[in-house]
Amino acid sequence: MSIEKLKIIFNQFQHEGEFESYQELASGHINDSYLIKTNHKPYFVLQRINHEVFKDVPGLIENKVAISQHIRRKLKDLPKKKLKRRVLAFAKTKAGAFYFRGDDGNYWNLMYFIDKSVSFETVKDERIAYEGGCLLGQFLTLTNDFDVSKLIEVIPKFHDMSFRYMQFEDALRIASNERRGIVKEQILLVEGLKAEMHILQSLKESGAIKIRVTHNDTKISNSLFNEKSKGLCVIDTDTIMPGIVHYDFGDAIRTICNTAAEDETNLDLVEFNLKYYKAYTKGFLKKMKSSLTPIELKYLPLGAKTMIFIMALRFLTDYLNNDVYYKIKYPNHNLDRAKNQFKLLQSMSQKMSQIENEL
Ligand code: GN1
Ligand code: MG
Q1: ipTM tops the 0.90 cut
Q2: Which residues form the Aminoglycoside phosphotransferase domain (predicted)?
Q3: Could you tell me which of 92, 224, 318, 333 has the fewest CB atoms within 10 Å of its CB?
Q4: Strand pairing class (90-91; 212-214)
């Protein structure tokens, strides 16, 4: 993306500062994001939304803007504290919309950059885990009274296990013999876990677990903290849609409790960290316990196991499909991600009884 092009797109939006420079924010696997520095603050984050993956971008934008506005209204009503939580704010285009569509068909949106914020790819101390838990608990509590029927399903069946198994089985059929051979061990794991990995979906479909507003991409790098490691807000809200609490709790645990990054290739470094699990859960339940039903609470550990598994399955599927979905930095990147998640799952499974004791 050239600087001239980014500047033209940025200038479609309403803002006061003048474009000075940009920096690509390269941690996402789907969209393209750029920090836009202007001649005075606030800075902005300009994001191209991948419309191959997100089929209804205007609907996605409506979802996330509505949730941001809802949270902003509710934060105003909270008693003033030393630290005010933050929420993403979106800029309008000069034509008054929250997104701009270029002649090439690409969709763009612009957010205010939250100044003096930091994010983490992995957790290095319990305080971050605890604060991360408070942040997600607060996000889910503040959105608990939002009418979930107003949200579109941005990616239909996003965390639907039967759908993900179907995609895996399709990929297996068309995969090269070479790739299929390389993942023999992982295929056995996927087959062996099939029944257990469908439990939450059945409870959801039977109505036993309630449908809520969920974020659906709660990895720790999608939370912002201030310089003193206090939680500020959750970001990357593109996948907000109806879901169950286990998706969000589980996906957060998947990254909080992994002692290594999601694509670490030295699997000896990948372990499930119980201390971070305890700290995260403590923060999460502090904000959330009163609005959780007993059945939601009971299944949180299985939620974590299920979300680690579903990511392993999706990375493995993309590897079998010759890497058509996630951005990769080298040929076996998806395979390494899948192996990493399977190792984490194994480590978590060994600690399951201690994990269940935390509730
Ligand atoms: C993708 O694009 P990013 O990095 O925010 C993916 C998530 C996965 C995540 C794994 C729309 O998120 O579901 O958990 O990679 N998003 C989509 O890091 O598929
Ligand atoms: Mg995302």
Answers
A1: yes
A2: 22-260
A3: 92
A4: unpaired
